[in-house]
Inverse folding.
């Protein structure tokens, strides 16, 4: 079981949304991490066969997914950022409708729908209309429909968007449970969504995957780029505006502890700090620009020479 992204590129006129992305995915959870506008959704849509690449291709076990057609769609589960549903449908109506679209027989559709609704915590809600569901309940219904066909490849585009912290944790646990023996590709701009469940993280910026590897390995990329400094409280606002600050902690005596990312110390008395995945994310996007859909010639490097992953 192997999903290969081979130099995937998607252009919209003169703009490049995804720029020569290559990766090989085997069973496990892959977190596609990037700011809004980095090209994640465009890449996901190409992986699912919804959008044709300008160049490059997606292969499953060596075969082009475009040529596989329905055979690939049969082993694919997809939860788009905004999945469509009929508000007047009940949860069970919706699940059985999606099961029919995926080719399940009526009895199998009913049995699997009820089992999955229970698994995602919607047992007892199957006769309730979807329009009455909270955002978290709708997202749980979304992942239930995505795995109706027991897919080998599960693609989840920003699945925790709009959820409160408690629902995000619940959703991450659900994904981890469904991930056994599957290739799971999950996109997000929220570091905590992937740092504890992803086997590998791909960091996307300006339409390209600029770093990839296990979470612990990526954290090492931020070594020597994370600093802490204690400053007078009256200087904190100006420093926050000038630096890429990850955390501010007020201390006794009118002083503030600033944690920031930079190639070198920018505040007198700064000391190096142990990096986290969030620090790496802040460093990669420290200019505040995701950069997707920018002309290729206009793009610059975000790492200094010799510090690429």
């Amino acid at each position: 079981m192997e999903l290969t992204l081979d130099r995937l590129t998607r252009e919209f006129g003169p703009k490049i949304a995804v720029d020569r992305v290559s990766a090989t995915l085997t069973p496990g959870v892959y977190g596609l991490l990037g700011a809004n506008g980095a090209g994640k959704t465009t890449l996901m849509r190409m992986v699912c066969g919804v959008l044709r690449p300008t160049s490059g291709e997606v292969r499953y076990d060596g075969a082009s997914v475009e040529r596989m057609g329905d055979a690939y769609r049969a082993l694919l589960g997809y939860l788009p950022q905004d999945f469509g549903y009929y508000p007047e449908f009940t949860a069970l109506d919706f699940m059985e409708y999606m099961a029919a679209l995926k080719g399940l027989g009526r009895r199998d559709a009913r049995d699997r729908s009820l089992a999955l609704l229970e698994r995602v915590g919607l047992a007892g809600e199957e006769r309730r209309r979807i329009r009455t569901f909270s955002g978290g309940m709708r997202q749980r219904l979304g992942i239930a429909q995505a795995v109706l066909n027991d897919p080998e490849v599960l693609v989840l585009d920003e699945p925790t968007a709009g959820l409160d912290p408690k629902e995000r944790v619940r959703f991450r646990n659900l994904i981890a449970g469904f991930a056994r023996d599957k290739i799971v590709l999950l996109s997000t701009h929220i570091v905590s969504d992937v740092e504890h469940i992803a086997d590998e993280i791909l960091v996307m910026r300006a339409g390209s995957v600029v770093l990839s590897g296990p979470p612990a390995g990526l954290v090492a990329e931020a070594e020597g780029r994370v600093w802490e400094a204690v400053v007078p409280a009256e200087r904190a606002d100006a420093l926050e505006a000038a630096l890429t600050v990850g955390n501010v902690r007020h201390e006794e005596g009118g002083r503030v502890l600033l944690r920031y990312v930079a190639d070198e110390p920018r505040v007198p008395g700064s000391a190096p700090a142990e990096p986290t995945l969030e620090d790496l994310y802040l460093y990669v996007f420290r200019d505040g620009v995701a950069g997707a859909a920018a002309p290729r010639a206009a793009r610059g490097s975000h790492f200094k020479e010799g510090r690429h992953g």
The longest strand covers residues 15-25. Residues 292-309 have pLDDT under 50 and may be disordered. Residues 222-285 form a domain with the Alpha-Beta Plaits fold (CATH 3.30.70).
